[in-house]
Design goal:
16 helices; alpha/beta; two-stranded antiparallel sheet; 42% helix; globular; 412 residues
Length: 412
């Protein structure tokens, strides 16, 4: 089972989210109490911990347990600091500090919420992901047509990024290269982007190279995620490495990003107007502030967005997406609960001329999985509205510019 692609959604219980309806007129009643919030995280964490004690527990369970444990510790420190009357000026001072040693609690929460993969995985988990990824690579018979080559990319600010190239065995400079931009809790070592298309790629009639990488601070990549610009720098460095190592022409370097990766891919390609390859955005957001607005009431959202802005983690990608002048496709799930429709890239650009839209519909027999996993559901569980395999449509669009294969599941 692939590593969970996105942060689990915490369900803090708020008794009264409208300050005007508070029985005693107190604004404080609109915010969940420290005890209630921590109790909720404790309960969720304990439930998942019981599951991962099973030696056959899935990677999803392991990931969720580590995530809830991290959130529990940070939330406990955060709420306790307020219950003990910690001087507010100290927290504000920490928010403005760029020194890792002086990072404030709110800044930690923001950073780990946006890119949890940087805190979720131990060295053992990373090694296991690599081994599992290589096993899947072999078991899916992908080694028949591809070779695998891990390598290191150095960004403009000197950070070493871990990347992997899946080279099509028939070498040709005209073969296109697809760069995959990961969701916020994924590991490149798990080979998720490649495995998602494995059933088609193993047939060998889809000539392309694929590149996956980990953002700074994730997996075996060095450095630390301190701003949204950091992730764009990582993406730019990977694109330049593709130009140098594979000699792929600018018109044949294509982008495919999912969730957070969709936003970073859009900002990366917009920063490199000379790159004329196609672009696919899968279940991503238009801006981070819209995601926050869709989760919490107005005045809390404004407070949360201010924290994100002060911390340097604001991400708005819709304008960057519109700047990209090449062929584009947006893929969306109608029941996405992680990135609701109001915050989705699809909602912002669906009327834009020249953008192809692909709606994820469950395959027959996969309805329950699609509804349960929605945002994180595998592409292999879905077809489009005409019952055509969405994996085939996406790959065919990226490689050939034609997103309607002649027959389902086959790239012409």
């Amino acid at each position: 089972m692939p590593i969970t692609n996105d942060t689990p959604k915490l369900s803090f219980s708020v008794a009264n989210t409208d300050p005007e309806k508070d029985s005693n007129g107190s604004l404080r009643a609109s915010i969940p109490s420290a005890e209630a919030a921590i109790k909720t995280v404790n309960t969720q964490n304990n439930n998942i911990s019981k599951k991962v004690q099973n030696p056959t527990a899935s990677t999803d369970q392991f990931t969720s347990a580590r995530w809830f444990s991290t959130v529990k510790r940070i939330a406990s420190n955060f709420f306790n600091s307020f219950s003990k009357g910690k001087d507010r000026s100290t927290t504000e001072s920490n928010l403005d500090s760029k020194s890792p040693s002086k990072e404030g609690i709110l800044q930690q929460i923001t950073r780990r919420t946006i890119l949890p993969a940087a805190a979720l995985y131990s060295k053992e988990a990373i090694q296991n992901a690599k081994e599992n990824g290589l096993t899947l690579f072999k078991n899916k018979q992908l080694n028949t047509h591809f070779t695998i080559e891990p390598y290191t990319v150095t960004t403009a600010d000197g950070v070493e990024i871990s990347a992997t190239i899946f080279k099509y065995k028939t070498r040709n400079k005209n073969i296109p290269t697809i760069i995959s931009f990961n969701p916020n809790a994924a590991l490149g070592a798990s080979l998720d982007p490649l495995i998602d298309f494995a059933e088609i790629l193993k047939k060998g009639n889809t000539p392309c190279n694929l590149v996956t990488f980990d953002y700074r601070g994730v997996g075996e990549s060095k450095g630390k995620f301190e701003s949204a610009d950091n992730l764009v720098q990582d993406g730019i460095a990977v694109v330049k490495s593709v130009q140098e190592k594979l000699k792929t022409s600018n018109s044949k370097i294509h982008f495919c990003g999912r969730s957070l990766g969709g936003a970073i891919a859009a900002k990366t390609q917009a920063a490199l107007p000379e790159i004329e390859g196609r672009h696919v955005n899968i279940c991503s957001f238009s801006s981070l502030d819209k995601v926050i607005n869709s989760y919490v009431p107005g005045f809390i959202a404004r407070w949360a967005n201010k924290i994100v802005e002060n911390s340097g983690y604001t991400i708005s990608a819709v304008d960057d997406f519109k700047k990209i002048k090449t062929e584009k496709m947006v893929v969306y799930h109608p029941n996405d609960q992680v990135i609701p429709a109001s915050a989705s890239m699809y909602k912002q650009i669906k009327e834009t001329d020249g953008v192809r839209v692909l709606k994820l519909c469950p395959k027959k027999g996969e309805e329950a999985t699609s509804l349960k996993d929605h945002h994180n559901a595998s592409l292999s569980s879905h077809v489009d509205e005409n019952n055509v395999d969405v994996q085939a449509r996406i790959l065919n669009f990226l490689i050939n510019g034609d997103d309607i294969p002649s027959t389902p599941s086959v790239i012409s």
